[in-house]
Design a protein that fits this description.
CATH class of one domain: Alpha Beta
Radius of gyration: 17 Å
Oligomer: single chain
CATH architecture of one domain: 2-Layer Sandwich
Structural class: alpha+beta
Strand content: 5-15%
Shape: globular
Distance between the termini: 38 Å
Order of helices and strands: EEHEHEHHEEHEEH
Largest sheet: 6 strands, mixed
Amino acid sequence: MSFPPIPKIPDTVLPSPLPIKECGEPMISLSSLSAQISVYPVYYHEGYAGAQPEAFLREGAAHRLAMAAAQLPEGYKLVVLDGWRSFEVQASLYERFREALFLQGWQEGPALTEELSKFVALPTTDLSKPSPHLSGGAIDLTIAGPDGWLEMGTDFDDFSELASTRHYEELAQPAPKDIEIRDNRRLLYHLMTAAGFVNYPKEWWHFEYGTRTWAKNTQQEPIYGGVMSM
């Protein structure tokens, strides 16, 4: 399967200012959703407090995920790394990244807060303005082939320029390995966007449906508010 280049989109993705029209869709588990979807809950395996051994999405987003998976070649699967994320897990992630930036020499202040916001949403209990994963409409994922997970250029949660979705599109003289990575990212991007998701441009693995960011990008109304517990 070959796909066109990943299009350029603004790095600054603002949430929709429109109020959420909560649709009331339930959360459903993903491990039994499709034979072409597997679940590897990274934060559970890494021992984060509150993380669960299953991944969940809102029903509408989950059905679109199954649509994307159905377009994969035989022998390939979508691998879900994270879906709905509790406030407890979000807060733990935020604090861990904050500490990592301190170790890199960052100082407390607006610049630190801005850098944090690029990669980890501020934890909140405001269900009318939830972080994307708290809504049940955001998913982190990759693709596995017959020989294992496809090469995507970085690990999940790599907070470097390499993780930018279009990074390998912009190389002037890509090596064969770079082209392989570029094509793998194109496959994931186009499968997910064709199913109705939008991508966060700083993270090749992150996609959203029904969220405030999705609403802004698609000129629609957000339909998923926050979900505090399962």
